[in-house]
Design goal:
49% of the residues lie in helices and 19% in strands. The protein is an alpha+beta fold. It has a three-stranded antiparallel β-sheet, with helices on both faces.
Amino acid sequence: MNEKVFVTVVDNGARAMEQVYSLRRQGYLPEDIYILAHDRNRTDDLAEAANVSTVSVEEEGIMQSMANWFRSRGDELRAKLMSMGCTQREADAYEYDMDRGKLIVMAKSRVPATRGL
């Protein structure tokens, strides 16, 4: 299956919660919605409060997840974003936003892969 990723940048936790509720109303499942913040604790706290996911080994793969132990937080965030389907350029821009205190809300929607003839 291919996955299509929706990404938005919000200013604060209240806006992140609004976005999460909006995505749920659109039919996204809680396990397909993610929150990222520059601070790990803030990411975990917001994800728990919203009952959504954080980007983990399942999305990144074991090798990327292990590599994150040795990366700076910025490099780790960019790797997480790219594992969710963002390009390098998008990941750089989103990480820049998180450096400035903004939050990222993402949702993945599984869509059937197209078959070649």
